[in-house]
Amino acid sequence: HYIDFRHVICTGGPAGKDSCVGDSGGPAVVRDGAGQGWLVGVLSKGSELPSHTDWCAVDGRFGMYTRVRSYADFVLTTMQGAKFECATCPCIAPPPEDRPGPPADRPGPPA
């Protein structure tokens, strides 16, 4: 299988320091110097061994995350003007009417 690393982030390496079966869709978050968390990836495949799906975060193997930055323009364009609706889920509070971007004095996510 060909992997285009322009659109993938790999994480893990040391035993016990990565994702597991059932974690797909989970976030990879990086904190900047100010402590702000940035979503940089969405888990596509954990680091389990192919023949033993219950062995997770295997030493020397890596989880593969879809690089969010590669799809940010698509997501923002698709969501432009979209309203959050929660007809079938237990919402805690109604969504805000407008969704401001990050403050002008705060840098964007790391490259």
Total number of helices: 1
Neighbour order of strands in the largest sheet? 1-4-3-2
Q: The CATH topology of the domain at 8-79 is what?
A: Thrombin, subunit H
CATH architectural label of the domain at 8-79: Beta Barrel
Mean pLDDT over the full residue set: 73
InterPro entries: Peptidase_S1_PA, Peptidase_S1_PA_chymotrypsin, Serine_Proteases_S1, Trypsin_dom
Main location: secreted
Organism: Cryptomonas curvata
GO cellular component, one term: extracellular space
Features:
111 residues, mainly beta, Thrombin, subunit H, 4-stranded antiparallel beta sheet, 1 helix, 23% strand
Describe the structure.
It is a single chain. This protein has 111 residues and is mainly beta. It has a domain at 8-79: Thrombin, subunit H. It has 1 helix and 4 strands, in the order ββββα. It has a 4-stranded antiparallel beta sheet, with no helix packed on it. A hairpin with a 5-residue loop joins strand 2 (27-31) and strand 3. The chain is globular, with a radius of gyration of 17 Å. This is Peptidase S1 domain-containing protein. It comes from Cryptomonas curvata. GO terms for molecular function: serine-type endopeptidase activity. It is found in: Secreted.
